[in-house]
Amino acid sequence: FQFFWLSLNVWLFGKTFLLYNRGLQYYYLHQMLGLGLCVSRASASVLNLNCCLVLLPMCRVLLAFLRGSQKVASKKTRRLLDKSKTFHVTCGVTICIFSVLHVAAHLVNALNFSENYNEEFVTLNAANYRGEDPRKLLFATVPGLTGVIMVLVLFLMCTASTYAIRVSNYDIFWYTHNLFFVFYMLLMLHVSGGVLKYQTNLEEHPPGCFNPNKTLRQNLTVPKAFEELFPDYTTEPFPEDLPVPEPFVQNSFMRVCSEEPKFQSHFPETWFWISGPLCLYCVERLYRYIRSNKPVTITSVISHPSNVLEVRMMKDDFEARPGQYVILHCPRVSALESHPFTLTMCPTDTKATFGVHLKVVGDWTERFRDLLLLHSNQDTEILPIFQQRRYPKLYVDGPFGSPFEESLNYEVSLCVAGGIGVTPFASVLNTLLDGWKSYKLRRLYFIWVCRDIESFRWFADLLCMLHNKLWQENRPDYINIQLYLSQTDGIQKIIGEKYQALNSRLLIGRPQWKLLFDDIAKCNRRKTIGVFCCGPNKISKILHKLSNSSNSYGTRFEYNKESFS
């Protein structure tokens, strides 16, 4: 996909480059600026397209609506929506690449405006006189100054978006990325300067024509026919340092101009490109703010092993589907910062409670935990409703769609979790516990890989209840549970008599993915299996590769991966 998008942008760059290189309306400007004009305008067209589309993947409400809409019935089309984050990143990288070209071209243009200043075309010149310091064009004009500031903003956003920064200090990424609004406001001002102009009267003044009423005749070679009609207008030979006009080279005679060339700035096309997506994004943010301006009621906070915190809450008229996620915002932790968390429990017809599990890593989750628990080492705190004032205010935005909504729409699904990556599947398991017969899913392979034995206790009770329920309903083959302990000093088990069913499914080491896929394909011949993964990139890449590989059983695997957009 990234290669296709880059190729499309290169094609657009080339088409725009040829337009400005060959267009007669840009003849005089091209003579002054050279290739700098073509490169700057071609890169600007690519930037317009990507600045327009980069916002759409961040319209979470729109994506959730499309994913849940019956109009998008195709499973393949809905899977394309799962690539929203990839598309956003691809557009961002494209903006960075072509911004470098755009800036380099305009640096050359600023120098050419100064060196090639022509008194005959005062309105066409951005410089005020020949030899003017090009730095004045960069720092003393609206297009130049806004361009410099936009480069600095884009540099901050680009560097802070790298994986190293996001992992080491997410706050830097969050705050710098919100500078996008400043970037777009500067972009609106940047294109309003009208520095580059085109000729509007091509019929009355074809490029390179002869005007007998103008002293510009000194720069043109007049045909003998005109010397006889206008003997006072004989000229010197054409200067060697100026290019000979193409119309004169290609024709044996030259047209007579009826008026002077007139130049006009382009209407800022960027406004057309970005105004729609920007307004759509702003309207959505306003809608999300109104929807989430009422704090939720926290019913319980539970501290689990391995620094995992479970928060259960209630909210009026809150509805969600298994696999969706919400965005939590706690003003006492951070005034602007918020984070996405997958729902591990969805509200149903019989209960209004929903919840999330979050891993305590980083400053935000640490401060959030300390506010929720009276003592950070206390295992559980469950308070009555009338004492909820002890909890900080918590706002929930969402829910939003994710690939795991499709896990119940396959006849057979393979769910692979790594560590805390089990959270998307917890809501699916909770839903199956409430009732599985109304869904298309008829067999679920659940693979969970953890480093320590205590991590399995996060959802051990849920797995045991679902296992016992299916046995009672005579459907023990409905779910195939495999737990893998990747790091251990010896044989271990989940402590507790009620966890015997899980201990029999506990394996030491890592899964043999190729053998696992072959076994699943053999047991489900000529079926389409949904593969869902939430975990380390290493596991994700292996599963993606195996899903795309063929097998001798006619089984097709469709790969899906968690991606917060």
Automatic annotation (TrEMBL):
<comment type="function">
    <text>NADPH oxidase that catalyzes predominantly the reduction of oxygen to H2O2. Can also catalyze to a smaller extent, the reduction of oxygen to superoxide. May function as an oxygen sensor regulating the KCNK3/TASK-1 potassium channel and HIF1A activity. May regulate insulin signaling cascade. May play a role in apoptosis, bone resorption and lipolysaccharide-mediated activation of NFKB. May produce superoxide in the nucleus and play a role in regulating gene expression upon cell stimulation.</text>
</comment>
<feature type="transmembrane region" description="Helical">
    <location>
        <begin position="137"/>
        <end position="160"/>
    </location>
</feature>
<dbReference type="InterPro" id="IPR013112">
    <property type="entry name" value="FAD-bd_8"/>
</dbReference>
<keyword id="KW-1133">Transmembrane helix</keyword>
<dbReference type="GO" id="GO:0005634">
    <property type="term" value="C:nucleus"/>
</dbReference>
<dbReference type="InterPro" id="IPR050369">
    <property type="entry name" value="RBOH/FRE"/>
</dbReference>
<keyword id="KW-0963">Cytoplasm</keyword>
<keyword id="KW-0812">Transmembrane</keyword>
<keyword id="KW-0539">Nucleus</keyword>
<feature type="transmembrane region" description="Helical">
    <location>
        <begin position="42"/>
        <end position="66"/>
    </location>
</feature>
<dbReference type="GO" id="GO:0048471">
    <property type="term" value="C:perinuclear region of cytoplasm"/>
</dbReference>
<dbReference type="InterPro" id="IPR013130">
    <property type="entry name" value="Fe3_Rdtase_TM_dom"/>
</dbReference>
<dbReference type="InterPro" id="IPR017927">
    <property type="entry name" value="FAD-bd_FR_type"/>
</dbReference>
<dbReference type="GO" id="GO:0005925">
    <property type="term" value="C:focal adhesion"/>
</dbReference>
<dbReference type="Pfam" id="PF01794">
    <property type="entry name" value="Ferric_reduct"/>
</dbReference>
<feature type="domain" description="FAD-binding FR-type">
    <location>
        <begin position="291"/>
        <end position="406"/>
    </location>
</feature>
<feature type="transmembrane region" description="Helical">
    <location>
        <begin position="172"/>
        <end position="191"/>
    </location>
</feature>
<dbReference type="GO" id="GO:0016174">
    <property type="term" value="F:NAD(P)H oxidase H2O2-forming activity"/>
</dbReference>
<dbReference type="InterPro" id="IPR013121">
    <property type="entry name" value="Fe_red_NAD-bd_6"/>
</dbReference>
<dbReference type="GO" id="GO:0043020">
    <property type="term" value="C:NADPH oxidase complex"/>
</dbReference>
<dbReference type="GO" id="GO:0016175">
    <property type="term" value="F:superoxide-generating NAD(P)H oxidase activity"/>
</dbReference>
<dbReference type="InterPro" id="IPR017938">
    <property type="entry name" value="Riboflavin_synthase-like_b-brl"/>
</dbReference>
<keyword id="KW-1003">Cell membrane</keyword>
<keyword id="KW-1015">Disulfide bond</keyword>
<dbReference type="Pfam" id="PF08030">
    <property type="entry name" value="NAD_binding_6"/>
</dbReference>
<feature type="transmembrane region" description="Helical">
    <location>
        <begin position="87"/>
        <end position="108"/>
    </location>
</feature>
<protein>
    <recommendedName>
        <fullName>NADPH oxidase 4</fullName>
        <ecNumber>1.6.3.1</ecNumber>
    </recommendedName>
</protein>
<keyword id="KW-0325">Glycoprotein</keyword>
<dbReference type="GO" id="GO:0005789">
    <property type="term" value="C:endoplasmic reticulum membrane"/>
</dbReference>
<dbReference type="GO" id="GO:0006952">
    <property type="term" value="P:defense response"/>
</dbReference>
<keyword id="KW-0965">Cell junction</keyword>
<keyword id="KW-0256">Endoplasmic reticulum</keyword>
<dbReference type="InterPro" id="IPR000778">
    <property type="entry name" value="Cyt_b245_heavy_chain"/>
</dbReference>
<dbReference type="Pfam" id="PF08022">
    <property type="entry name" value="FAD_binding_8"/>
</dbReference>
<dbReference type="InterPro" id="IPR039261">
    <property type="entry name" value="FNR_nucleotide-bd"/>
</dbReference>
<dbReference type="GO" id="GO:0042554">
    <property type="term" value="P:superoxide anion generation"/>
</dbReference>
<keyword id="KW-0472">Membrane</keyword>
<keyword id="KW-0521">NADP</keyword>
<keyword id="KW-0560">Oxidoreductase</keyword>
